[in-house]
Amino acid sequence: MGAFASGLTRTAQRFGGVVLIALLGAAAVFFALRAGQGDPALAALGDQATPEAVAAFRARWRLDDPLALQFGRWLAGAATGDFGASMVIASGEPIAQLIASRLPNTLFIGAYALALAISISLTAGVVAALRHGRFVDGAATSAAVLGISMPDFWLSYVLIYALALGLGLFPSYGFTAPSASFAGALYSGFLPALAIAAPMAAAFTRMLRTALLETLHRDHVRVARSLGHGERFVFVHHVFRNALIPYVTVIGLQVRYLLGGTVVVERIFGVNGLGSLMVDAAFARDYPLVQACALVFLVCVLIVNFAVDLVCAQLDPRRA
Amino acid sequence: MSAAAPLLEVSNLCATFAGAGREVRAVRGASFTIEVGQTLGLIGESGSGKTVTGLAILRLLPAHASVSADRIAYRGENLAAMSDDEFRRLRGVELGMIFQDPAGSFNPAKRIGWHLREAIRRRGGEVERWEAEAGDMLREVGIRMPQRVLGAYPHQLSGGMLQRALIAMVFLLRPALIIADEPTTNLDNLVERQILALIRAHQAKVGAAILFVTHDLGIAGALCDRIAVMYAGEIVEIGPAAAVLERPLHPYAQGLLATSRSLERADAELHELPGEPGGVPPEQGCAFAPRCIHVMAACRERHPAMTEVEPGHGARCLLHER
Amino acid sequence: MRGRLAAALANKLALFGGLITSLVALGVLAGPWLSPYSPTDADFLALLAPPSPAHPLGTDSFGRDVLTRILYGARVSFAVSVSGVLAAALIGTAAGLGAAWLGGLWSAIVMRVCDLLFSFPSFVLALFMMVVLGYGVANIAVAIALIYIPIFARLSRNMALLVRDEPYVQAAILIGQPTRSILMREILPNIAAPLFVQIALGVAFGIVIEAGLSFLGMGVQPPAPSLGAIMADGREYFSRAPWVLTLTGLAVSLALLGLNLLSDGIRDVMDPKLRAKL
Which of A21, A196, B106, B168 has CA atoms 20 to 30 A from the CA of C266? Predict the structure, then answer.
């Protein structure tokens, strides 16, 4: 009971930490853009805009209110999912709607990539550790080093060249939203997901292999053998189970690279996601949209890391 | 499988580690037997090969170690002829081991109860009533609140508690031979005595044989029927406990005993063995020759054979060779 | 036997990594003197020429020699990445050591800022900084620094906390050695190896960030070459002249491979006790 209650308290504390970072992030994003050199009015109206037009624009978007007031208004809206309206790209359209239509695609690609990276690395890492020092291990380890040396956008073109243009197995451009057809999304999203997943899979494989090899030499593994437990039992319950702890931790640390990877890859493969939306917003200097995208990305990472933290606490009683 | 066969018979056991650039011969031709219900003490300084002997018998040495023996027989059956999988089935339920470091012996991610339940399952016992059986065993090894220990993770318990739980886990498998590798090294005196007492009580109850690895002559004297003294990977003296402790034959055993006596009496003048223990044994001759006070010219040339001086009590020393 | 084999192999790989990195570094430093061509002047007689003895990696749509562009572009990419990561190493390590030494409020502030920077998807943070600061080479370095500051700060803080409890540091504190000299003489040398590992990895990652931004068109502006800018250019006529994008990508991979192997090598020779604690 006591342990359960203290577990709840710790979960609440962790959640509090997440909220704090989200608030800090909102403030950082808001004030950094205000401190930046750009003028949203000129960005929206063009450099030749008349002073009257600029004044009207500033009045319409209430840009002359005190910064703290603007921030409070924005934060209160953001908390309820209202990010205001886009200034440039889809002038006047609610940003919340834009994000709602784009975010599922990005989450789909991200989850798809994560699933690919996890399945590849679990297989390769376990096989490499079990065949330590043999040919398979060498092959997996070398592939992993090559993998982390392949940036995702460059790998994207290799995949397009080989699998889409060359063998014609996959479309080279375009993405079917999962809401329209889940199977279509799996098919059309495979190459972008793989491009993001490959370097991740390489990093995860290296981590898992090292963790497995290190755990194999722990005393409790030898003790389990001395009791006559079978090799499979020892590997599953004493080696793999414990190596999962650093493995999951590293997955949490890599999420920021994974979600970052969606930005360029979405552009290359024509995925209508949050990443490509943010790139468009950045080019158009649509400040409220950039601000909202950055915050949503931040919250995504925070949520995933929060989940990873909970899983780790489950896996490792010393950390609970 | 004759009735006269000893429980464990080890003959000319060798274990070699391939280290960086050179080979380390950790065990060099160890031979001994253990009868049913008997306790053999394996004593020597650290690095003398005691632990490796135990691990080699159980086939638990890492892959870079190579083990050979003329014969390792359990109840008359040759273990060396068994495949790894056949041998695995003997481990735990026939040949058990209590390790030195109780904190590292449990999986930190699993509760003590899980470990004990899996031990019962491994034995083929009734898994449904594992909690009752594990609780009884924990009580037997002196844990007063078994439920709390069963629900605890290893990091939540003290070293003494963990050692008791580890012993309980090994006992649950009911092995006929227990290799106990310095099971009380990291514990304080009081706990040490309690744990030795419960090992002895369990042995009296189920009639298990024990190979007791220790560097403590006092413990060996109190616990063992026979004692084997190891030096540099070799058994240099073996015999009944009383005989070895009262009339040691080998100069190394004599020195060890003098050291331990002077420690007991807190003497001002400490008997110390000259020279450094361990090191690389010389290519030929007696390994102890560089430190021996009775060393003769022949000691550096001829490797002494095990010579029986009185019935069941022998030493590997030229002083006793005829 | 296997342990030795693995160690020898790791050493060989580290050596290989060092070799590749030196080769890349040589190309970066001596690039302008290695090639007879100009990186920016168009040659309309040799548009999109495939690889040949005269142009080992072919030419692009302006007839510019791709190898020359890569050599010049790598200078820009490396300069941006190295300066960004070194700035991050300086600022991050200083902040982390300060947090370890002063503790309390300062430590809390540093660690929260790190948590924040660490929670932005890396490339999103870079993109965001391009909007705040404007496009340009120097601003990419700032973005790379922001991405890498939390890594150096956390690493140096954790390591310093470990090293602080070592007897030799405690002794230095007891005999009243001034804080600054303890940090510089006792602590920094003992945490240097993992910092170097992170610098090597960081430079590799910084190249990816620069290339990604330039690839999108927010980094180095044409006609100036950078690895990402050349690839972005090559994307336009990828199906007609795949060598521009592909071979530049291979050059990027070669540089990353060298840095990754090198950091693996440094990690392997690191004090195993310290490595276990990380």
Answer: A196
